[in-house]
Predict the structure.
Amino acid sequence: MAKSHSAGEENLAVEEASNLIREMKTMIARGLRDPSYRDLSSGYFRSPPTSSSWKNSPTPFERKYAMKLTSANIQDLRALYINNLKKALDMEQKITKALPDLIEKSSDSELKDAFRTHLEQTKGHVSKVEKLLEKNAGHAETETCKVIQGLTTEASDTIKDVTDPSLRNIALIGAAQQVEHHEIAVYGTLRRWAEILGLSDDARLLQSIEKEEGNADHILTQISERVNMQAAA
């Protein structure tokens, strides 16, 4: 039999819930207005709420809730620039892992060579972005790039789904060019932000990466003109 609760117990529970909601609203307001109220190293607040509903050791929900408020702390263009450099590093690292599969599954020698060349370029891009992060943030760490995660998943699915070698070459080029177009957009944006911030050395380095991505896309377009006709024959 379910245990019954008195009206007094129910009222106490309602009051506790109301107090918790008020404290959460206060926490949000203070956290957004005053960055010093937040402990960015742990993702939690320095002065946790005092209600008995919030323990000294936060629950997973409380920790996730507090960390969401302090996740990136982007308050100016420089912080936005650094955050997107971290995403660019994650992007390049993921591409470095994905390209060997494209090389293996391609049946066209020219396409294989193009992928091999770009793999080496991508390794260089990883090194360059790491240096930019070390210069601007003191250390190189990544922030998840959700876009490239989706694109590389699509490429992997294409490899599995398309069994005809000629048709697969076309599909691989399409998947690779989607990635290239995203990279071109990323580095064009970062280059412009670097120029606005007065980071001329950064801008030149980012422009060089952007140029290599554009060249890689152009090479794939040239290969596709021949490969497309072969698959259609």
